[in-house]
Design a protein that fits this description.
Blueprint: E1 2-5, H1 27-41, E2 47-50, H2 59-68, E3 72-76, E4 94-98, E5 100-105, E6 108-113, E7 134-138, H3 145-158, E8 161-163, E9 170-172, E10 177-179, H4 192-220
Parallel strand pairs: 1-2, 2-3, 3-4, 6-7, 7-10
Antiparallel strand pairs: 5-6, 8-9
The protein binds fe (ii) ion.
């Protein structure tokens, strides 16, 4: 089974007080919680694709950590994976380390990059049922305003269409991007199908929030008297 996760930031103390504001008393407590969550799901022969920013620890600390985590790990490099620059780091603890990769997952194409790619390779490809078959999995932006901007961009794409090559018929533009931010899965690596479900729920919650805001703004509008 293959799983995906991003931006664990093991050993990264500042995430307890800034950015994510993770609810742990210490970085040690955070690390132990994340290791337990990981190992509660992942078995020895499972594959885990890490979408970057895995560890802020030293080469030695990160090696010890990798030995404690179950599964065969594949690393897409993030901007915080600085232990990779230490020539003593044993990179063979990962099956591979890459900046970018494209893999197949149960007949779907998956584009992997730490940074979100809004025009990804294979975006327009459809499967035999006419459904988009490519997913772009990313990390990097955690739960920041950058995700809000991507959500706004997704809406623009959703309202757009394109002419299909060959038939020339107008068709919706596929946009299948998922931020595999570990906090969204309570620090547990998830399968592609599980991430798709997480994303669907997030989108539904966003739509519900928007509807509420819309209704609230209508209520706040001054009544017209007709005079
Ligand atoms: Fe990160």
């Amino acid at each position: 089974m293959r799983y995906y996760i991003s931006d664990c930031h093991f050993f990264h103390r500042s995430l307890l007080t800034s950015m994510d504001k993770r609810p742990f008393e210490s970085v040690e407590e955070m690390n132990e919680f994340m290791i337990n969550q990981w190992n509660s799901r992942i078995k020895k022969n499972d594959e885990v694709v890490i979408l970057g920013d895995f560890s802020w620890g030293t080469a030695e600390q990160t090696e010890e950590l990798l030995k404690r985590l179950n599964g065969r790990k594949y690393l897409i490099k993030g901007n915080h994976d600085l232990y990779l620059k230490d020539k003593n780091f044993d990179e063979s603890l990962f099956v591979w380390v890459k900046d970018y990769a494209e893999v197949h997952d149960n007949r779907r194409k998956v584009v992997l990059c730490h940074y979100p790619i809004v025009c990804y390779n294979g975006q327009y490809r459809l499967d035999e049922n006419g459904q988009p078959k490519t997913w772009m999995l990313y990390g990097h932006i955690h739960n920041t305003h950058d995700q809000d901007l991507i959500d706004q961009y997704a809406k623009v794409v959703g309202k757009s269409s394109h002419k299909r090559i060959g038939s020339g018929e107008e068709a919706p533009i596929p946009f299948q991007m998922i931020n595999c931010f570990c906090v969204r899965s309570n620090y547990i690596p998830l399968t592609l199908d599980e991430w798709i479900e997480v994303e669907k729920k997030r989108q539904a919650a966003l739509e519900a929030d928007e509807k509420l805001l819309d209704e609230a703004s209508k209520l706040a509008e001054p009544e017209t008297t007709g005079k």
